[in-house]
Amino acid sequence: xxxxxxxxxxxxxxxxxxxxxxxxxxxxxxxxxxxxxxxxxxxxxxxxxxxxxxxxxxxxxxxxxxxxxxxxxxxxxxxxxxxxxxxxxxxxxxxxxxxxxxxxxxxxxxxxxxxxxxxxxxxxxxxxxxxxxxxxxxxxxxxxxxxxxxxxxxxxxxxxxxxxxxxxxxxxxxxxxxxxxxxxxxxxxxxxxxxxxxxxxxxxxxxxxxxxxxxxxxxxxxxxxxxxxxxxxxxxxxxxxxxxxxxxxxxxxxxxxxxxxxxxxxxxxxxxxxxxxxxxxxxxxxxxxxxxxxxxxxxxxxxxxxxxxxxxxxxxxxxxxxxxxxxxxxxxxxxxxxxxxxxxxxxxxxxxxxxxxxxxxxxxxxxxxxxxxxxxxxxxxxxxxxxxxxxxxxxxxxxxxxxxxxxxxxxxxxxxxxxxxxxx
Length: 424
Fold this sequence. Notes:
Elements: E1 3-6, H1 13-16, H2 24-41, H3 43-54, E2 62-63, H4 65-72, H5 77-95, E3 104-107, E4 110-118, E5 121-125, H6 134-147, E6 151-156, H7 165-174, E7 178-181, H8 184-193, E8 203-205, H9 210-221, E9 225-226, E10 234-239, H10 245-256, E11 263-268, H11 271-285, H12 291-299, E12 302-305, H13 309-319, E13 323-327, H14 331-336, E14 343-346, H15 352-357, E15 383-391, H16 393-409, H17 413-420
Parallel strand pairs: 1-12, 5-6, 5-8, 6-7, 8-9, 10-11, 10-13, 11-12, 13-14
Antiparallel strand pairs: 2-7, 3-4, 4-15
Helix pairs in contact: 2-3, 2-8, 2-9, 4-7, 5-6, 5-7, 6-7, 8-9, 10-11, 16-17
């Protein structure tokens, strides 16, 4: 069960908040040969790894449109309706991020502006296995479509019978047309280097296990951009006497069940609240199908008793959680002081699961403390911004002397000449 820490000193926060550590060198040592094999052998290597890792022994790993519709039709109707509702909310939220850029005249005759253009080829990795994340299809494919990406390629691990019906339906609904049954680091390699049937992409998106994460790190060294650094899922909950213990316990367990390497953190002003939540965790844990996974994650997890709100906020910002739930009376004023978090959930009736599935915000978020410097996936993640400028002859007369003086001061005579030669 979670370790309880009472009134830690601020100087101890960093050490106490450390995440589970992985042997990155060993991981890269395992993943790199797989990447190299895919690079050198293409589809032949994919077939080999599909058989070895996923027990999928069919020669065709591409899903065509007809097959996609056929598989999607087997998705239960109530799940289809839920996916449709989530899709509408996600599209509405991400469409609001489209921006009209203005032309700015910085001085007379000098006009500057930005234009937003889509990244042309994107690769979406969708985890399968025991938890097929069809919701991630919506979170990635919908903003990619809104941005106008010309090629969207989806890779997901095959199950023994092929493609998961919910993933198929989410892909069909989101307009994804290129789908390949390939998982793990071999999928990342295929999207990085390209094969006979899978195109090389410009940017990779999607969560995955530690091997997928390592493969994305290697892909970034090959000139392929990645969405953000990713690691095991995590949540921090700040709960006071207004919190409802069974709600808090459920939210902690919702992240703990992701994987044994996940981490959940509870922060509260009193010991009584902590104990009430821990009791609820024990009750709810026994009813979970993935209780053994959650139990292992709880061993990586901690509960902090911190009476001072200011110190609790310092701890939250130090941890920089992927998900932050504020189950406190004055959650709005606390939220204003948070500057390190992937996504924030306010009050007793905003479960983290809402963001994972259907409220509209994106669930692809920075983990492992990267929320100090990274944002979660948004429409911007699928775009580039290019600056444009236009200077008239009059504008060059107005700005030319400034450019010449600065260029000469930096001993860059050719820069100066590029202005002087225009005889403004």
